[in-house]
Amino acid sequence: MRDCAICHRLKHIASDPALVHEFAHSYLLLGNHQYYAGYCILLYKKHVRELHELDAETQAALNRELMISTRAVVKAFEPWKMNHACLGNRDQHIHWHIIPRYESEADRHYDPWKHAVEFDQWLVPDAQKTELAAKLKQHILQDIERMKA
Ligand SMILES: [Zn+2]
User: Which domain holds residue 37?
Assistant: First the structure.
């Protein structure tokens, strides 16, 4: 869709330094900020506004991709807890926020946007994105191999 920021990003996804992995239905990318170390986003490949608009098979496949992504974040960053959010009020294109939470956070029992005003202080340079993406990719490939076995 013409005015969709996610569709626009998907057009240049191959050269995106935040790209972790291409799944059949989605792309996993490192989040722009790393206020939560390991924060990622999973972008559905097609412009669809709502999860319930997908057929059941696609919903299940997308969920598998979300779980593989989540396990990779857990293995790479060893968080205390995982948060998932699929909102899309601003960018109305199916995407998930995959947010690791840490015991060291004073506000770990609250939603992950409580400190959103601070996120911009945690933007990471492209080189660091590429490095973190590679770390996550390794865990994804291991997970996919293990499922094949
Ligand atoms: Zn879109």
Answer: 5-104+122-148
Q: Is residue 110 part of a domain?
A: no
Please, which residues have CB within 8 angstroms of residue 64's CB and are 6 or more apart in sequence? none
Whole-structure pTM value: 0.96
Tell me if 114 is assigned to some domain: no
Q: Which residues surround ligand 1, an ion (CB under 5 A)?
A: 1, 4, 6-7, 47, 93
**Total domain count for the chain?**
1
pLDDT tens-digit readout, 4-47: 999 999 999 999 999 999 999 999 999 999 999 999 999 999 99
pLDDT tens for residues 53-99?
Answer: 999 999 999 999 999 999 999 999 999 999 999 999 999 999 999 99
For 8, 72, 79, the CA distances from 43, given in Å and listed in that order, are 12, 16, 22
How close is the Cα of 9 to the center of ligand 1, in Å? 9
Indicate the angle between helix axes 126-148 and 56-77, nearest 10 degrees: 120
